[in-house]
Amino acid sequence: MEFMASWSEPSKLMNPIFANTIAPEFRDDPVDFCMLDVDEFKDLARSLRVEALPTFLLVKEYYVKKRVVGVDKEELRDSIRGLLREFEQKKKDQLGEPSSNTA
């Protein structure tokens, strides 16, 4: 979830990076992306303690697992990858597959 605003200069910098680079990179992964304007979703932004823009919330199973604030493409990319690895490991554990960390 990206919280942004049309008047925010950092949001204006990050929006095309998010839409044209980050989101397409994870097109084949079990990830959904959305952009929410804080002026339209004030209550939601307040309840999730969005205090700076842009703020990216990585949510899994209804919980915020990671918060990335500002224009940091690499941190956002790494955070998404980490959450996907966690998701894949949990899936393997549920299927009883051996962990890739075992010798």
TrEMBL record:
<protein>
    <recommendedName>
        <fullName>Thioredoxin domain-containing protein</fullName>
    </recommendedName>
</protein>
<dbReference type="InterPro" id="IPR036249">
    <property type="entry name" value="Thioredoxin-like_sf"/>
</dbReference>
<dbReference type="Pfam" id="PF00085">
    <property type="entry name" value="Thioredoxin"/>
</dbReference>
<dbReference type="InterPro" id="IPR050620">
    <property type="entry name" value="Thioredoxin_H-type-like"/>
</dbReference>
<feature type="domain" description="Thioredoxin">
    <location>
        <begin position="1"/>
        <end position="85"/>
    </location>
</feature>
<dbReference type="InterPro" id="IPR013766">
    <property type="entry name" value="Thioredoxin_domain"/>
</dbReference>
